[in-house]
DNA sequence: CTTTGCACCTGTTGGC
DNA sequence: TGCCAACAGGTGCAAA
């Protein structure tokens, strides 16, 4: 699930319940995530109030006075708020107990996610230090995309998914943005004109912003035990629509493989 | 430095 | 119905 809009939706959902609350315990039922969850996490966090919940790329950052808890949802992770005595279900690996009553519950069937503790300025954490600009920030625009694409033989779609160039653009939104910009995913990055980069940067910002808005408007169930957290069924222009007609021109959407991942495009609306 | 492919893990889907 | 292969939205890392 988690692409950037879901991560940001999650942040907005949990932030009001976390900020100002004090961690009273941490229960780790399964600590084998992408990296081992620090065994001393309960001792580290107990008694500390959450100062803020921020996001960098797809990392959620829970800030405390003495350090930062980095949380990544990987491919299948989710966070929700439940009463602390709610029985955990399968794959509910970690609870942050807040004020002894509420649990911030981390679920991740595939365990590709992460929960790491960092002391010191979090922007210097090795996982964050080399990241490119936020897609919705002013530091990412047509110029940065144009410069980043010069001399690059890789495809524009793979360049978009390179975290050094821009963060938070995963497989779905790389495909959707390229459709909106009218550019084929397989085109060499170095062949993009400045005008292409302009349309693409605008498309990325617009699509991500719209998806976050949609997530916010259907935001629910971060508090409580019912159903999945407040994600949303998004309708896509090309992603997952192989052999289906393009909503714009009726041509059949094509699917190709790029770097072991599926890409989708409309042969008419994305001429090259 | 860039590019490519693998690895981590479980669950779902589709074909036979 | 059962079995098996292929695939799934992330991303760090090693190797070429």
From TrEMBL:
GO terms for biological process: base-excision repair. The keyword tRNA processing does not apply. The active site is at residues 2-3, 58, 261. Residues 237-271 form the FPG-type domain. Signal peptide: none annotated. It catalyses: 2'-deoxyribonucleotide-(2'-deoxyribose 5'-phosphate)-2'-deoxyribonucleotide-DNA = a 3'-end 2'-deoxyribonucleotide-(2,3-dehydro-2,3-deoxyribose 5'-phosphate)-DNA + a 5'-end 5'-phospho-2'-deoxyribonucleoside-DNA + H(+); Hydrolysis of DNA containing ring-opened 7-methylguanine residues, releasing 2,6-diamino-4-hydroxy-5-(N-methyl)formamidopyrimidine. Binds 1 zinc ion per subunit. Its EC number is 3.2.2.23, 4.2.99.18. One of its GO terms (molecular function) is class I DNA-(apurinic or apyrimidinic site) endonuclease activity. DNA binds at residues 91, 110, 152. Keywords: DNA damage, DNA repair, DNA-binding, Glycosidase, Hydrolase, Lyase, Metal-binding, Multifunctional enzyme, Zinc, Zinc-finger. It comes from the Bacteria. Involved in base excision repair of DNA damaged by oxidation or by mutagenic agents. Acts as DNA glycosylase that recognizes and removes damaged bases. Has a preference for oxidized purines, such as 7,8-dihydro-8-oxoguanine (8-oxoG). Has AP (apurinic/apyrimidinic) lyase activity and introduces nicks in the DNA strand. Cleaves the DNA backbone by beta-delta elimination to generate a single-strand break at the site of the removed base with both 3'- and 5'-phosphates. Monomer. PANTHER family: FORMAMIDOPYRIMIDINE-DNA GLYCOSYLASE (PTHR22993:SF9). This is Formamidopyrimidine-DNA glycosylase. It comes from Pseudogulbenkiania subflava DSM 22618. The lineage of its organism: Bacteria, Pseudomonadati, Pseudomonadota, Betaproteobacteria, Neisseriales.
